[in-house]
Amino acid sequence: xxxxxxxxxxxxxxxxxxxxxxxxxxxxxxxxxxxxxxxxxxxxxxxxxxxxxxxxxxxxxxxxxxxxxxxxxxxxxxxxxxxxxxxxxxxxxxxxxxxxxxxxxxxxxxxxxxxxxxxxxxxxxxxxxxxxxxxxxxxxxxxxxxxxxxxxxxxxxxxxxxxxxxxxxxxxxxxxxxxxxxxxxxxxxxxxxxxxxxxxxxxxxxxxxxxxxxxxxxxxxxxxxxxxxxxxxxxxxxxxxxxxxxxxxxxxxxxxxxxxxxxxxxxxxxxxxxxxxxxxxxxxxxxxxxxxxxxxxxxxxxxxxxxxxxxxxxxxxxxxxxxxxxxxxxxxxxxxxxxxxxxxxxxxxxxxxxxxxxxxxxxxxxxxxxxxxxxxxxxxxxxxxxxxxxxxxxxxxxxxxxxxxxxxxxxxxxxxxxxxxxxxxxxxxxxxxxxxxxxxxxxxxxxxxxxxxxxxxxxxxxxxxxxxxxxxxxxxxxxxxxxxx
Length: 485
Fold this sequence. Notes:
Layout: H1 9-18, H2 31-39, H3 53-60, E1 68-70, H4 84-89, E2 96-103, E3 106-113, E4 119-123, E5 130-135, E6 140-146, E7 155-164, E8 172-175, H5 198-201, H6 203-206, H7 212-223, H8 242-246, H9 250-254, H10 270-278, E9 284-287, E10 309-311, H11 335-340, H12 342-345, H13 351-354, H14 379-387, H15 391-394, E11 443-446, E12 458-461, H16 466-471, E13 476-478
């Protein structure tokens, strides 16, 4: 278990001069705090306001409160949560609900046009937004929505109507086939193809305290007629609030004290520290408890990622939509895997390998400072804390695209990553380009009963997954092409 070393600035030089070892911090959180984090009830962000007014005031206007908002179906006052230009042009847009999946390249889309007044929730307010309307699982007339590029873009064929038999498994708050942007007239021209309900898929990271067990039970009851509908969303707070990072506050609000709440900056285990943010700022491949979920529903501070989900998969030397050939993340929510690669690139105890998002980013105040919406200090100041006069030069590492051949469907086999300021790999190649792993650092696990001479029997794995695959009895090899070794 990797721990943080805590050394005060005043004694650091003295310790070094004397040849003394750094002081190792006591394990944090304590067993009592960890137990409370796993058993206490969520109470919502407003319960924190009385004692933590200054921080609450910053958070209340931050981007973390805008991941999900109510729509007009919850009251006319919520109309403003739909972008103004989208409200103006609503009748011209393809505001149709995605009902279900027919097969891997085809969805059923309701021919009934959804009105703004039927939108119960809006997901997103800053870069993009999507809309949710309630579906009760009933049959109806549908069009087919298809993709030819693995789900990147979707097209609705309105020339042919088909019968959809209905599916109560898909009941809940469902996505419309749109993804809109704040600037007038701008939208994702590829449209959107998520066929699962919000509660099934991703609500756990747009809100706080989602009770996945209550949802599962409600869904089971609804399917057998014991429940009227699935409009409840089972969250403690519609916003990403205090308890997402500090743990549930049910005990703390009744008896305020440091011993029954968690301060993320004091967490001593590196993985647990990083997971404060990366429980959501990540891209899972599969959820361990629900094949439909794309979040870490049920996670509490101190839990292990692997007990809830697997990471999106690398494809060493070939690349895929999510990951470049050298391991750089290509899509949203993949900064965590970039940072974790630092342990392989620079060493497990290197600074970047030990960092958590909140070491640089202001989680309470995110978005409030228009000139510097994300960081505690400016980009240059942040990097200069360690890199001094080289700060501006090292900032180039945050651009995972510059200097690399562009990747797009179906040709993913380049080192092309994310745009400027979004890559978090913190490593250059010899030409000064943002770079992940060399072929000699690729990690592979041989499938059980697999043939070591067959490429198809080797699974690309992340370096930090090595021990886990070995515990499953699988052989793990580091190198470019183990089937040729």
